[in-house]
């Protein structure tokens, strides 16, 4: 079974995520957790790591490489996510479908209530029947994903930039440069959002500016309007 | 103001996650929980009330009335929701705002990701652009004719005059219409909860409508005419 990897800086919402994993994820799925305090689950095998978590990118890279020592793929989950009964199984079904098409896959991520771009359920199309949009029943290829709840694999993995905001954008651009494709799955998860970096969005943006200016001037120009 | 959270469950399938969210984000709020003894023994709650499931309306009337013996108002919660860190606080802040304006509130209900249009975060009648992952209108209170009490506040006076009818589907439609007829107003709050949805009574719309029809025809023929044009 494909393991789960979770990085948590403050563990604020982690107990609710872990309860949803306990209830809805098959018992033989291993769970890798990077967090300040040791975590446990009653039925799942848990591997716990401590990391300084100076940036989300560094912590997630640390965890990914730990998991890739023993597994070829994993599902990365932010600590302020809550799974539905079908979230994990639908994601894995969709990964299986996409693999069977022979595509080189970068990420396959779930849909949610709080994310940028095509993952956000507010961007759906078709009729709003049965309380959700018709389009939520389909897998969609995209050029941007936030790895809030996402399947990834060792063979195409791209390290996350050592920044918080825009690290997803940088990673997705690298995936696309490598001709790895990005997909939005039918899987739905709940995302509290902004629990690690806070609601001071101006500061979140500014904190990433210096790194982008130095390392990705093209993206710096796009997001900050500076020179390329 | 403290309003306890009242939950009725049939099988408790998703209840552990819901209770975990209450424990994390508003542990000081009393929880009243109704359900079969075999289900209740698996969960912690401040007040447990044993009762066999019959229908949404009767089950919730039972647990809400228990909570209202001890408090002047109650927050009714489905057993398949998950609170965010601010769900309860924002809902109660909105209740305060509405009450301060003397708007005579019936229900004040949270928005969520699985609900009828006016409460559903996907709903965008004004064609707004998404700003920081949400529509700006989600931070506003909106008056509406009918809500689903997925996570919703009501006061004792209003509930005493308009309990739920003994139905699954349409129990909220009937009750909201009854409240409006008495001059109460229903509101959607800026509060948000996650709702798994369709976990207890299923999704067979035809069957669920058919099930409610005899009661509606007998006790609320006016509503049948209004809603079904029949």
General description of the model:
The complex is a heterodimer of chains A (228) and B (230). With 228 residues, chain A is an alpha/beta fold. Chain A has 7 helices and 11 strands. In chain A, strands 1, 2, 3, 4, 5, 6, 9, 10 and 11 form a 9-stranded mixed β-sheet that branches. A two-stranded antiparallel sheet of chain A has the order 7-8. In chain A, a hairpin with a 2-residue loop joins strand 7 and strand 8 (132-133). The longest helix of chain A has 14 residues, at 87-100. Chain B has one domain: Spore Coat Polysaccharide Biosynthesis Protein SpsA, Chain A (Alpha-Beta Complex). Chain B is globular and about 45 Å long.
Largest interface, Cβ cutoff 8 Å: A-B, 31 and 32 residues
CATH homologous superfamily identity of chain B: Spore Coat Polysaccharide Biosynthesis Protein SpsA, Chain A
**Total count of domains of chain A:** 1
| Uncertain residue segments of chain B | none
Instruction: Give the topology string of chain A: H per helix, E per strand.
Output: EHEEHEEHEEEEEHEHHH
What is the β-strand count of chain B?
9
Sum up the overall morphology of chain A in one term. Answer: globular
Overall CATH architecture of chain B: Alpha-Beta Complex
Helix content of chain B: 25-40%
CATH fold descriptor of chain B: Spore Coat Polysaccharide Biosynthesis Protein SpsA, Chain A
Class of chain A in CATH? Alpha Beta
Please outline the major beta sheet of chain B.
9 strands, mixed
| Straight-line N-to-C gap of chain B | 44 Å
C-alpha-based Rg of chain A, rounded: 17 Å
Structural classification of chain A: alpha/beta
How many alpha or pi helices of chain A?
7
Strand content of chain A: 15-25%
- The total of beta strands of chain A comes to 11
């Amino acid at each position: 079974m494909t393991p789960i990897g979770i990085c948590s800086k403050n563990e604020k919402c982690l107990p609710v995520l872990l309860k949803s994993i306990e209830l809805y994820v098959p018992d033989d799925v291993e769970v890798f957790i990077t967090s300040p305090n040791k975590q446990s689950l009653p039925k799942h095998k848990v591997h716990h790591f401590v990391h300084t978590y100076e940036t989300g990118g560094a912590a997630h890279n640390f965890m990914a490489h730990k998991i890739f020592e023993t597994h070829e793929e994993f599902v990365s989950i932010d600590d302020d996510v809550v799974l539905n009964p079908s979230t994990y199984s639908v994601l894995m079904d969709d990964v299986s479908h996409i693999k069977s098409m022979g595509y080189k896959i970068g990420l396959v991520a779930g849909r949610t209530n709080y994310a940028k771009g095509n993952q956000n359920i507010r961007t759906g199309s078709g009729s709003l029947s049965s309380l959700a949009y018709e389009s939520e029943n389909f897998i969609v290829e995209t050029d941007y994903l936030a790895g809030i709840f996402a399947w990834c694999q060792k063979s195409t993995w791209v390290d996350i930039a050592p920044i918080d905001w825009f690290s997803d954008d940088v990673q997705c651009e690298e995936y696309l440069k490598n001709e790895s494709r990005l997909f939005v799955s039918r899987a739905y998860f709940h995302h509290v959002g902004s629990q690690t970096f806070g609601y001071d969005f101006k500061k979140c943006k500014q904190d990433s500016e210096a790194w982008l200016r130095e390392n990705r001037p093209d993206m710096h120009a796009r997001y900050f309007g500076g020179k390329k | 103001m403290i309003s306890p959270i009242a939950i009725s469950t049939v099988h408790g399938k998703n209840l552990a996650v819901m209770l975990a969210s209450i424990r994390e984000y508003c542990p000081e709020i009393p929880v009243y929980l109704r359900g079969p003894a075999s289900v209740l023994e698996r969960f912690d709650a401040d007040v447990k009330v044993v009762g066999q499931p019959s229908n949404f309306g009767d089950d919730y009337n039972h647990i809400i009335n228990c909570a209202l013996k001890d408090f002047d108002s109650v927050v009714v919660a489905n057993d398949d929701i998950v609170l965010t860190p601010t769900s309860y606080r924002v809902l109660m802040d909105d209740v305060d705002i509405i009450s301060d304006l003397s708007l005579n509130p019936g229900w004040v209900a949270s928005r969520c990701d699985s609900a009828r249009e006016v409460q559903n975060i996907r709903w965008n009648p004004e064609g707004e652009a998404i700003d920081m992952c949400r529509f700006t209108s989600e931070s506003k209170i909106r008056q509406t004719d009918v809500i689903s009490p997925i996570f919703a506040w009501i006061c004792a006076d209003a509930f005493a005059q308009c309990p739920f009818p003994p139905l699954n589907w349409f129990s909220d439609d009937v009750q909201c219409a009854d409240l409006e007829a008495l001059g109460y107003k229903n509101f959607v709050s800026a509060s948000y909860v996650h709702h798994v949805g369709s976990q207890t009574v299923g999704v067979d719309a035809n069957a669920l409508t058919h099930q409610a029809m005899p009661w509606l025809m007998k006790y609320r023929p006016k509503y049948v005419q209004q809603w079904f044009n029949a």
